[in-house]
Amino acid sequence: MGDGPVSDGVRVLPPNDLRQYDDLAGEWWRPDGAFAMLHWLARARAALVPPASRPDAVLVDLGCGAGLMAPHLAGKGYRHVGVDLTRSALEQAAAHGVTTLAGDATAVPLADGCADVVAAGEVLEHVPDWRAAVAEACRLLRPGGLLVLDTLNDTVLARLVAVELGERLPTVPRGIHDPRLFVDDRELVAECARHGVALRVRGVRPGLRATLGWLVRRNRGGAVREVTHDGPAIRPTWSTAVLYQGRGVRHG
Ligand SMILES: C[S@@+](CC[C@H](N)C(=O)[O-])C[C@H]1O[C@@H](n2cnc3c(N)ncnc32)[C@H](O)[C@@H]1O
C-alpha cells in the first residue's frame, strides 16, 4: 500500500497529497461516491460554457481529474483536452472521450492561445502556486477566449464549511484539502486582470433541500445511478466567502 501510516486499512497521507487521488480512483465516477460534489460542480461549470463558435474549437481542462465535465460538454462542439498530474484519473478521463495530457497546471505543454475555453474546476486550491496556474490558464486562451473556474475562498468560513464540516460528509474526501492553499477571490480577480482576463466571480453552493435529500437517500442505500447527470443543483448565492465560480474573457 506504500508509505504513510495505515488506519482501518487506508493509508493516511498529508493534506492535499496527490496520492489520495490514486487511492480514491474507484470513486470518481460513482455518483454517490466520495467525489459526488465534483459531479454537481462539473455540471454547473459546463453550463457556463457556450456552444463552440467555430470548428475545431478546443477546451483545455486544467486539473481535469477523471473528466467529469465530459458528459456535460457533449454536443457543444469542443475537443476536450484534459491536463492533470494524476495518471489514474487521466486514464478514466480518456475512457470518457477526453484527450489527455500528463502535466502540471503551472507548466502546461501546450501553445499560447491554443484554447477557446480554459476550465479550472476545483484545482486552484490544490496547487501550491495558484498564481502560476492562473498565468498558464490565461496564456493558453486565445484573444476572446473564455476562462471558467470554481474554487474555495481563503476565509475562515471556507475552512469551517469545506474542511471541518464538509470533509465529515460523504460528498468530500477527508484530507483532500490543505486550507493554506485556498484562493482569495479578490486576489484571483486581480491576477486574472494582470494576465488580460476580466474575471467576474459569484458565490455558489449546492441547494440545501436537494443536498439533504441526497444525503438521506444515500444513507438509506437508495438508488445509485450509473451516470450522474442529476444530483443537487449548484446555485448562485450572495456570498463568495466559501465556494465561488469565475467567468471571464481574455482581451483581444
Ligand atoms: C478536486 S480534483 C478536481 C478534478 C476535476 N477538475 C473535477 O472538478 O472533477 C483536483 C484535481 O487536480 C489535480 N491536480 C492537483 N494539482 C495539480 C497540478 N499542479 N497540475 C495538474 N493537476 C493537478 C489532481 O490530480 C486532481 O485530479
Automatic annotation (TrEMBL):
Listed SUPFAM superfamilies: S-adenosyl-L-methionine-dependent methyltransferases (SSF53335)
InterPro entries cross-referenced by the UniProt entry: Methyltransf_11, SAM-dependent_MTases_sf
UniProt key word Signal: no
Keyword S-adenosyl-L-methionine appears in the UniProt entry: yes
A GO molecular function held by the record: polyprenyldihydroxybenzoate methyltransferase activity
Keywords: Methyltransferase, S-adenosyl-L-methionine, Transferase, Ubiquinone
Residue ranges occupied by any Methyltransferase type domain in the UniProt entry: 60-149
A Pfam family per the record: Methyltransf_11
Biological process according to GO: methylation
Protein name stated in the entry: Bifunctional 3-demethylubiquinone 3-O-methyltransferase/2-octaprenyl-6-hydroxy phenol methylase
Lineage: Bacteria, Bacillati, Actinomycetota, Actinomycetes, Micromonosporales
